[in-house]
Amino acid sequence: MADTAALENSKKIQTLRKSPASVLRTAFEAGSVPGTVELREVPFLTMAGLRVDPAGEAGKRLGTVTGGLPSASGEVRGSGDTAVLWLGPAEFLLVAPAESHESLGGELPRALIAALGDGEGQVVDLSANRTTLELSGPRASAVLEKGCALDLHPRVFKPGTALSTEIGGIPAILWKTGDETYRIFPRASFAEFLGRWLLDAMREYASTEVP
Amino acid sequence: MLLIPCPNCGPRDETEFHYGGQAHVAYPENPAELTDREWAEYLFYRDNTKGAFAERWLHSTGCRQWFNMLRDTVTYDIQAVYPMGEPRPDKENAATGTTAPTLTSPVSPEGAVK
Ligand SMILES: [Zn+2]
Any chain A CB within 8 A of the CB of B63? Predict the structure, then answer.
């Protein structure tokens, strides 16, 4: 456990950091159409890349920390506010609140590294690799459909599903967290591009519908 | 645009994949014993098939896994998808002289469907 002074210092440093889409914060507010489609960044979520055979001993140990590991494309497992997304047969992305990170007094990724032990696999802190954009509202899927080839029909793409795919021509992970809510994880360097792309796709819903 | 049925994720756009060239090109057992010509043939010479062609693909934007695919180079018809290391699925049938080979088609609805 980090000593208190080091933790206080670490928390102080956190206040200075800038999230990858922070330059667009006011643009997201201006471009959101309340009740129709809204966009915001959820910065600094704790993320960890897990590479492990889910059926092996190390995979089982990691599963007890995370609340299970998903077993097929699209599946999301987890417990409480921690989710594990399927990226590949032996590759997973853990997503947890910012406060779960050890630099803010949480236990991640330390608890995962301890669970892996000397077992075969990897636990890598990827919290700075991607940012999170949250797109919500009854028009959210219509906005995504402009640049995502997946079948987003609610009959096919159900809440609690996450897929690694392309949105607006860039690679991103798309996680449907609710009936009308999506979390999109672009890599940090793509965050501004994707933010502007989504704002552009949302623009038509700000004007009144032509009868 | 090809719609490629990834064995892990289901059908996805071609832009999510990377092409890995001809499949079943085995690494030479004793590369040091090859002549320059044999080594060059291993490295650079590939079939230029008209018709069913076995090739490697990587689902780079999805599950990041390699697989083999049998694709008709004339019609672009995807005839089979099978794991790396497995024999080409249309060959044994051709050898026994049977009619149209039965090919496994992994095409399923979107991988996410539960
Ligand atoms: Zn795949």
Answer: yes
**Of B60, B66, B55, B53, nearest to B15 (Cα)?**
B60
- What does the pLDDT look like over B2-41, one tens digit per residue? 999 999 999 999 999 999 999 999 999 999 999 999 999 9
ipTM for the whole complex: 0.88
Residues paired with A58 in a beta bridge: none
CATH for B3-96? 3.30.2270.10
What's the Cα-to-Cα distance from A94 to each of A49, A171, A205, B8, B72, rounded to whole Å?
6, 18, 33, 20, 40
Residue numbers in A near B84 (CB within 8 A): none
Instruction: Check: CB of residue A43 under 8 Å from CB of residue A131.
Output: yes
Query: Can you tell me the distance from the alpha carbon of A164 to that of A171, in angstroms, rounded to the nearest whole number?
Result: 7
Gap from CA of A53 to ligand 1 centroid (Å): 17
Please say whether the beta carbons of B85 and B100 come within 8 A: no
